[in-house]
Amino acid sequence: MNDAARSASIYDFMMRVLDRIMIKGWRKELWAMVRGPLVLEAGVGTGLSVDFYKDEFHITALDNNHSFLEKARHRAEIKGKNADFIFGDIESLPFDANIFDTALTTFLFCQLENPQLGMAELNRVLKPGGQLLLLEHVRTYGTFGRLLEVISGPLYKMTGDHIARDTEEIAAKAGFVNISAKDLFTRGVIIISAEKS
Ligand SMILES: C[S@@+](CC[C@H](N)C(=O)[O-])C[C@H]1O[C@@H](n2cnc3c(N)ncnc32)[C@H](O)[C@@H]1O
């Protein structure tokens, strides 16, 4: 096993543990909101949401990590789920404008170098009236929020993860409308839904 495949396996193992504890229920809730038929899952990772892919959707699953994408493709195959797995960068999506009915991400925006560009790209590839769905951990408020702000710098240096991003504001700046957020965990993990105008 090479280093990339090993890190995909380690990531997959850790995420499966977290999925068991709490994330899987959140994924289920997010996917219950998806409108098809054409759906883009950006940053699919190792495919931990493929359980929720419905036969009536045509799903395009994209990631910029070959090993993760390979694991996702394999998982979908085992579970008998159909999707197109495509290598690509959310900050420069390899699709024409106005294609998808829903574009969704789970725990991606905390990782992006340029989240505003990624959000603009999701806006570009959605049809007018298309749906944006994000399950993300974001900036939160109160004492817990302040604590996270304090550790967010050092944590970013260690993990490359921004734990205190205002992803709703990023969606608004990209032109999305009817933005709403559902709190899942201390207002630090939320589902954001919005529409392309
Ligand atoms: C924290 S993981 C989440 C994976 C998956 N969505 C999940 O919930 O398990 C973030 C994923 O986004 C991918 N990613 C990071 N930056 C990306 C980019 N610019 N374009 C596409 N995918 C990206 C990573 O390779 C990784 O698979």
How would you summarize the topology of this molecule?
Elements: H1 3-32, E1 38-42, E2 58-63, H2 66-78, E3 84-87, E4 100-106, H3 115-125, E5 126-137, H4 142-159, H5 167-173, E6 176-185, E7 189-196
Parallel strand pairs: 1-2, 1-4, 2-3, 4-5
Antiparallel strand pairs: 5-7, 6-7
S-adenosylmethionine is lined by residues 15, 42-45, 48, 63-65, 68, 89-91, 106-108, 111-112.
Question: Which small-molecule species are bound to the chains here?
Answer: S-adenosylmethionine
Poorly predicted spans: none
What's the N-to-C terminus distance? 46 Å
Number of helices: 5
CATH topology: Rossmann fold
In words, what does this structure look like?
With 197 residues, the chain is of the alpha/beta class. It has a single domain (3-196), classed as Rossmann fold, CATH 3.40.50.150. It is 40% helix and 26% strand. The chain contains five helices and seven strands. The protein has helices spanning 3-32, 66-78, 115-125, 142-159, 167-173, and strands at 38-42, 58-63, 84-87, 100-106, 126-137, 176-185, 189-196. It has a seven-stranded mixed sheet, sandwiched between helices. β4 (100-106), α3 and β5 form a beta-alpha-beta unit. α1 packs across α2. The N and C termini lie far apart (46 Å). Residues 15, 42-45, 48, 63-65, 68, 89-91, 106-108, 111-112 line the site of S-adenosylmethionine.
